[in-house]
């Protein structure tokens, strides 16, 4: 398990909280757009309704993706509080610092992430 000095832990926490706030603002904006775009006009024909349904589904998928990234950040914060930050959730090996620097909310090492993606 990686053990970080307190100042480094605070830097990581600050970065994760900042990212969480960015994602939350993006999520709120996306949901607000979904609400506005979903209005059906009485003059809409079948093509208009189809386009609106497609657009709404795309926006829903975007909101779901943002929500998933928010959950990842929350999980990283929980792992930081529990002293498990930087440890792979699957193999319990250390996640390289360079990977954590690039993706602070990552919870899997490269090998475990590759294995999880190859299952799909």
Explain how this protein is built.
The chain is mainly alpha-helical. The protein has 4 helices and no strands. It has helices spanning 6-37, 46-82, 97-102, 110-118. Helix 1 packs antiparallel against helix 2 (46-82). The longest helix is centred in the middle third of the chain and has 37 residues, at 46-82. The chain is elongated. The chain starts with 5 loop residues before the first helix and ends with a helix. The mean pLDDT is 86.
Number-wise, the strands total 0
Low-confidence stretches: none
General form:
elongated
Distance between the termini: 29 Å
Average pLDDT confidence is 86
What percent of residues are in strands? under 5%
Helix and strand succession? HHHH
Q: What level of helicity do the residues show? A: over 70%
Largest sheet features: none
Number of helices: 4
Q: Radius of gyration from the CA trace?
A: 19 Å
Class by alpha and beta content: mainly alpha
Note the topology:
Elements lengths: L5 H32 L8 H37 L14 H6 L7 H9 L2
In short, what is this structure?
By secondary structure, the protein is mainly α. It has helices at 6-37, 46-82, 97-102, 110-118. Helix 1 packs antiparallel against helix 2 (46-82).
């Amino acid at each position: 398990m990686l053990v970080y000095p307190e100042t480094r832990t605070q830097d990581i926490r600050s970065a994760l909280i900042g990212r969480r706030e960015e994602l939350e603002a993006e999520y709120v904006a996306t949901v607000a757009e979904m609400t506005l775009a979903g209005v059906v006009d009485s003059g809409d024909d079948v093509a208009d309704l189809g386009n609106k349904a497609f657009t709404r589904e795309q926006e829903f998928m975007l909101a779901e993706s943002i929500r998933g990234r928010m959950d990842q950040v929350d999980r990283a914060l929980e792992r930081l509080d529990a002293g498990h930050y930087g440890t792979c959730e699957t193999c319990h090996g250390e996640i390289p610092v360079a990977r954590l620097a690039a993706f602070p909310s990552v919870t899997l090492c490269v090998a475990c992430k590759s294995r999880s993606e190859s299952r799909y």
